[in-house]
Amino acid sequence: MNAPSELNFEEMLRIRLEVLRREHRDLDAAIHALETTGRPDQLTLRRLKKQKLSLKDQIVKIEDELIPDIIA
Prior knowledge:
mainly alpha
Protein backbone atom coordinates (compact mmCIF):
# COMPACT_ATOMS: atom_id res chain seq x y z
CA MET A 1 0.00 0.00 0.00
CA ASN A 2 1.16 3.55 -0.66
CA ALA A 3 2.68 5.47 2.18
CA PRO A 4 0.88 8.75 3.02
CA SER A 5 3.90 10.77 1.94
CA GLU A 6 3.76 9.46 -1.62
CA LEU A 7 1.89 11.43 -4.25
CA ASN A 8 -0.36 9.77 -6.77
CA PHE A 9 -0.02 10.46 -10.48
CA GLU A 10 -2.79 13.09 -10.58
CA GLU A 11 -1.27 15.04 -7.69
CA MET A 12 2.12 15.00 -9.41
CA LEU A 13 0.51 16.32 -12.60
CA ARG A 14 -1.21 19.12 -10.68
CA ILE A 15 2.06 20.16 -9.05
CA ARG A 16 3.86 20.07 -12.41
CA LEU A 17 1.02 22.11 -13.93
CA GLU A 18 1.37 24.80 -11.27
CA VAL A 19 5.15 24.96 -11.79
CA LEU A 20 4.68 25.31 -15.56
CA ARG A 21 2.06 28.04 -15.09
CA ARG A 22 4.42 29.94 -12.80
CA GLU A 23 7.27 29.65 -15.31
CA HIS A 24 4.90 30.83 -18.07
CA ARG A 25 3.94 33.92 -16.02
CA ASP A 26 7.59 34.64 -15.28
CA LEU A 27 8.50 34.42 -18.96
CA ASP A 28 5.58 36.69 -19.82
CA ALA A 29 6.88 39.26 -17.36
CA ALA A 30 10.42 38.95 -18.73
CA ILE A 31 9.19 39.39 -22.30
CA HIS A 32 7.16 42.43 -21.32
CA ALA A 33 10.13 43.96 -19.51
CA LEU A 34 12.39 43.32 -22.49
CA GLU A 35 9.86 44.82 -24.91
CA THR A 36 9.52 48.00 -22.87
CA THR A 37 13.23 48.73 -23.04
CA GLY A 38 14.38 51.08 -25.75
CA ARG A 39 15.73 48.55 -28.25
CA PRO A 40 15.08 44.97 -27.19
CA ASP A 41 17.37 42.19 -28.39
CA GLN A 42 15.22 40.53 -31.03
CA LEU A 43 17.01 37.19 -30.84
CA THR A 44 16.52 36.96 -27.06
CA LEU A 45 12.92 38.07 -27.43
CA ARG A 46 12.27 35.40 -30.05
CA ARG A 47 13.85 32.69 -27.87
CA LEU A 48 11.80 33.72 -24.84
CA LYS A 49 8.58 33.72 -26.86
CA LYS A 50 9.40 30.29 -28.27
CA GLN A 51 10.10 28.98 -24.76
CA LYS A 52 6.83 30.51 -23.53
CA LEU A 53 4.92 28.80 -26.35
CA SER A 54 6.54 25.48 -25.48
CA LEU A 55 5.47 25.89 -21.85
CA LYS A 56 1.93 26.67 -22.98
CA ASP A 57 1.87 23.47 -25.05
CA GLN A 58 3.00 21.47 -22.01
CA ILE A 59 0.34 23.15 -19.86
CA VAL A 60 -2.41 22.28 -22.33
CA LYS A 61 -1.21 18.68 -22.55
CA ILE A 62 -1.30 18.24 -18.76
CA GLU A 63 -4.69 19.96 -18.51
CA ASP A 64 -6.04 17.52 -21.10
CA GLU A 65 -4.75 14.62 -19.02
CA LEU A 66 -6.38 15.96 -15.85
CA ILE A 67 -9.76 16.85 -17.34
CA PRO A 68 -11.76 13.71 -18.17
CA ASP A 69 -13.40 13.45 -21.57
CA ILE A 70 -17.14 13.91 -21.32
CA ILE A 71 -19.14 12.39 -24.12
CA ALA A 72 -22.28 14.43 -24.69
